[in-house]
Amino acid sequence: MNGDLLEKLEFQAYIGNLLGDLEDIPATIKKIIHALISITAADQGYLLIRDGNGEFKTMFAQMQDKEELKIPQSIQPEIVFELIQREHKSILSQNTQQDERFRTLLSVSAFHISSMLWVPISMLGELVGVIYLQNTSQKNHFTRDDLELTEFVAPGIGLLFDHARLQQVLLDKGRLEREMQMAREVQDSLIPKEIPSLKGWKADFCWQPALEVGGDFFDFIPIDEHHLGLVIADVSDKGMPAALFMALSRTILRAVIENHGSAMEMITRANHLIHQDAKEGMFVTLFFGILDTESGKLTYVNAGHNPPFLYNQKEQNLSKLMPTGMALGMESHFAYQEETVQIDKGDFLFLYTDGALDAMVRQKPFNEEELLGFIQRHRNGDPGQIVKLLQDFLCGDNSGSSSNDDLTIVVWKRNN
């Protein structure tokens, strides 16, 4: 190093001030490398960083006069990196032409390298970069002071790397959050906002994804003047994959319903189409019913979904509408069966997804038995009351509840 102790202290203070400049990290690092080249009287200086494949790429290459260089031909990173990674320490070659480790390298003789210095940059014990300085002048060989100054600089550059990485993480997180918000808005647009207004009927619902987007969906699909399609479904998986599969399933289902037919014919066609586009392991459980709004007859197919409950006011009991086939998307040519039930005045249909049975309430699982008890206790309420009370019970802040699954509830009641 040229100069004395004062110059060394001034250099360290200058580097300390530079490390506080986080607005333009690449420019800050470039200034640090140039200051290092200047104080060590190096001919050239390089900063190499490790990419995702573990290979080292040149980030900055400068000469003493600040001229930027292209990727240098004069260094042999493979050999030096092997030494650094094996020994976990810096390399100082004060007389490279006579250094047994490097003197046989073609680049050392071809470019007349007289002295070189390599210092690793580590973060949390992992090698992330290297500072390389070289000299071709026989009059100026790097010293231990030069090594110490370069080792002083290396941790600061590592901190700048880390800060830049965190900045990128935050930017990526912000972009992801915006994308997820857009996805939520798109998915939300596919969910009904209102109940069809039908004389003699009343209904309500809740739809609550566990994440920003989810795989549950429900739908009310007019078929003709006196028939309404009722749908509730739960896609395997959660988050974005489930949301995309949910949108696909909903689109296909609506398309096949437009062509009419019986409930089992519609679901059989929908299953075949969904299976064609389903990735391995993806499927959707679904309950689909065609409700005759005049007579109260409900013809349904249950494709592997949680059995809905039908409350019979006259008998004061609950019956389960059991599956009539497997989940959609699992087998291409499965033939679904349909069943028919009667919904009379005062009766109601309770549809739900398994998020209702995955909840923990006051550190106890809310299972099917608990759900049946809840429906029995509130059987005289209107659909809005039943849905609101159950949603508050399962998801309310004061209930000590938690669920890691999407939650959807639909209650459809025939008025007295």
Task: Write up this protein.
Helix content is 37%, strand content 26%. Mean pLDDT is 83; it is low at 398-402. The strands form four sheets. A five-stranded antiparallel β-sheet has the order 2-1-5-4-3, with helices on both faces. The chain is α+β, with helices and mostly antiparallel strands and 416 residues long. The radius of gyration is 35 Å and the shape is elongated.
Q: What's a concise summary of this model?
A:
With 416 residues, this protein is of the alpha+beta class. The chain has helices at 5-18, 25-40, 77-87, 106-110, 144-190, 239-258, 263-277, 355-358, 368-377, 383-395; strands at 44-50, 56-63, 91-93, 115-123, 126-135, 201-208, 216-224, 227-235, 284-292, 297-303, 309-312, 317-320, 339-342, 348-352, 360-361, 364-365, 401-402, 407-414. The strands form 4 sheets. It has a 5-stranded antiparallel sheet with strand order 2-1-5-4-3, sandwiched between helices.
